[in-house]
Write a structure and sequence with these properties.
It contains 30 helices and ten strands. With 665 residues, the protein is mainly α. The two termini are 50 Å apart.
């Protein structure tokens, strides 16, 4: 499914679509570290690309991250539904479809928010890590190590305490912290599992923290789910994984000023045909930019797709919330036990069935996580809808005008991503519920398994067909582009002091290869010096002010034909003119006539400002050291978290296997 969505990008070339900019090589400039005068919105993603592109082509890195994010979102939804609902493969695949094939993913791809999708993909894994932390926390009492767990004794009703003490824990029991039997080796296994769960959470935070919004998404999910006793540790990990953009905001001062209130109305969630704002958000759509929407969402298919999705979610919401009758539970367990037995070659499914038989129908930790995700989904849909009302926008305008950093909240539709884990769980539960209702009360296990497979196949088709244009790079919009060789030659000639100013004015471009779609100027990521950008965003005929004060002064000076000396005073050492894109040039010819031409072709011209000097504060060197340290901490969590979790999981699996093979006494 990930290849179906982003397949066109697998060819040679680079992603250049609206906010998405990938380049062959990036540089570790102050802007990449978030130390420019614009808000650090692309931190630490720009620093990551700057560190890796000397070794690997930047286009390949961005494509790989995007494909892995799409895959991880789907696989995470499958694992989450298996762990929290104990469903078999068919319902898991329905959860995968809901997580990957939806308007949110399509719209954010069209907007160019490839790095935001890493935060989206981290959400089910964050919920899973929170569940394991919470389940293990419940097992810290001495009784968990010395006697039969009360939950198991109360729910199974078939095994004695002696039998529990002699039986080795299953792999699933180890995963959930239900460690039973003798004291030998149990405490070390428990604490190792706890470390692994916290390490996994750290990795989730770091992956989501590729952008500030992603960090807020994963952090909100974890803080809601981990429980009060784990809040302090979770908050500490979240702050550590967010260190790059938090320190950049503090050091650069870009986050100390309030945002332009005009951005609230410009970025408010948008109503789609026949749905209204609330219906669009409930269907995981409603992005502010009407141009970044799949064609199917502009037709009655949007209503059909949303109705099908919400009907499936509603079918499974009772089970996800833990509200079901005994008869329904028995029939579901019969169908699932047959299906899981048929797929027993899959070790994870087999261990989930073992845990279900041992621990009973209701795992309290899982139930609390599921209910927490449902509450989070309600807020993720309702609050952006409220924010799109007149009084909601007034409240948000008051907030961003008075609270520094509140501008992160202006694109409220981004936070609809928080509903995805709950939607995936409800879809999986709904698939199982429909299969149970359609399954015969008696019959062979094979027929029940076939019924589950047919139900899942039908639901997957119903979810994907109304959004047919998500395939092939969202209707062909995601396609690689190629940069002229002039960009490389310009980068090679910038070998002196001073920042870079760019003409035409503004930070968006329309190149021949990108057609009518406005894209971010690739210059800041293509050139080895800081490129001054105002941060101004043109939206629907209006302009939302940015934070780049010095960049605004430089652009004004160029458009008014200021002297070369004035540019030098502003710290500008280079001026790049991009000829193949429209935009304001003003009286810049007067200024350019005073500069030295260094490179010129049909698309790019580079000028050097005479006697330019670096415009760097004395404290900037210390700021770089702090910024580097913050990025190293983030990278350590990104790599070390999953690695430590994998090592602990492998060690505990070996311990379980050796414990099982030991003779009972």
């Amino acid at each position: 499914m990930a290849v179906l969505i982003a397949g066109p990008l697998l060819g040679p070339g680079y992603l250049l679509l609206r906010d998405a900019v990938s380049t062959p090589r990036s540089y570790m400039t102050d802007s990449a570290l978030g130390l420019g005068d614009a808000a650090p919105r692309a931190v630490p993603q720009d620093a990551l690309l700057a560190a890796l592109t000397p070794l690997v082509d930047g286009g390949v890195i961005v494509k790989a991250i995007l494909l892995v994010a799409l895959w991880a979102a789907g696989f995470g939804a499958a694992v989450l539904s298996r762990e929290l609902l104990r469903v078999s493969t068919g319902p898991q695949l329905v959860a995968v479809t809901v997580a990957m094939w939806n308007p949110y993913v399509a719209e954010r791809l069209l907007q160019g928010h490839w790095s935001l999708l890493t935060g989206y993909a981290a959400l089910p894994w964050t919920a899973l890590a929170a569940y394991r932390i919470r389940a293990r926390r419940a097992s810290t009492s001495d009784a968990a190590f010395r006697r039969t767990p009360p939950t198991a004794a109360a729910t199974t009703g078939r095994a004695t305490n002696t039998a529990h003490k002699m039986r080795a824990p299953s792999a699933a029991e180890g995963d959930h912290g239900t460690i039973i039997g003798t004291d030998y080796g149990k405490k070390s296994a428990f604490h190792g599992g706890a470390v692994g769960s916290w390490a996994a959470l750290a990795g989730c935070f770091a992956a989501a923290g590729l952008t500030p919004t992603g960090a807020l998404l994963a952090g909100s999910t974890a803080l809601v789910l981990v429980g009060r006793r784990n809040l302090l540790g979770t908050l500490a990990l979240l702050l550590a994984s967010s260190a790059p953009w938090l320190t950049a905001t503090a050091l650069s001062g870009a986050g100390s000023e309030p945002s332009d209130p005009a951005g609230i109305a410009a970025f408010a969630a948008r109503a789609e045909p026949a749905l209204g704002t609330l219906g669009s958000l409930a269907g995981l759509g409603g992005i502010w930019n009407a141009d970044a929407v799949p064609g199917s969402r502009t037709t009655p298919l949007a209503l059909i797709a949303t109705a099908l999705l919400l009907a499936l979610v509603a079918t499974g919401i009772r089970t996800t919330a833990g509200i079901k009758t005994r008869a329904t539970r028995r029939r579901a367990d019969d169908v699932e036990s047959d299906t899981v037995t048929t797929h027993s070659a899959h070790p994870d499914i087999a261990t989930s069935a073992d845990h279900a038989a041992c621990a009973g129908d209701i795992d309290r930790a899982a139930l609390r996580i599921r209910r927490g995700l449902l509450v989070l989904a309600v807020f993720a849909v309702v609050l952006p809808a409220v924010g799109a009302t007149s009084w909601g926008m007034s409240g948000m305008e008051w907030l961003v005008a008075r609270v520094p950093g509140a501008g992160l909240l202006r694109d409220t539709q981004k936070y609809v991503a928080l509903a995805m884990p709950a939607y995936a769980l409800c879809a999986a539960a709904g698939c199982r519920a429909i299969a149970v209702r359609c399954a015969p009360h008696t019959g062979a296990a094979h027929s029940r398994t076939t019924g589950m497979a047919l139900t899942a196949t039908a639901l997957i088709a119903l979810l994907t067909l109304p959004l047919f244009d998500v395939a092939r790079g969202v209707g062909g919009a995601l396609r690689p582009v190629h940069y002229p060789i002039g960009w490389q030659r310009v980068a090679e000639r910038i070998d002196g002091p001073g920042d870079i100013a760019v003409l035409p004015g503004g930070m968006f471009r329309k190149f021949p290869d990108t057609g009518k779609v406005a894209v971010l100027d690739p210059a800041p990521r293509m050139l080895p010096r800081d490129v001054l950008q105002t941060g101004e965003l043109p939206v629907d005929g209006h302009t939302v002010a940015g934070e780049g004060v010095r960049a605004q002064e430089v652009e004004t000076a160029l458009l008014h034909g200021a002297s070369a000396q004035r540019l030098g005073e502003l710290g500008v050492g280079w001026v790049l003119v991009e000829h193949s894109t429209p935009g304001p040039l003003g009286a810049s010819k007067t200024t350019l006539a005073q500069l030295d031409s260094v490179y010129n072709d049909s698309q790019l011209t580079l000028y050097r400002v005479p006697d330019a000097t670096d415009h760097v504060a004395e404290s900037q060197s210390a700021h770089r050291v702090i910024a580097y340290a913050a990025h190293i901490l983030w990278a350590a969590l990104l790599v070390g978290g999953p690695l430590l979790a994998a090592i602990v999981r492998r060690h505990r699996s070996r311990f379980t296997a050796s414990f099982r093979s030991a003779p009972s006494s």
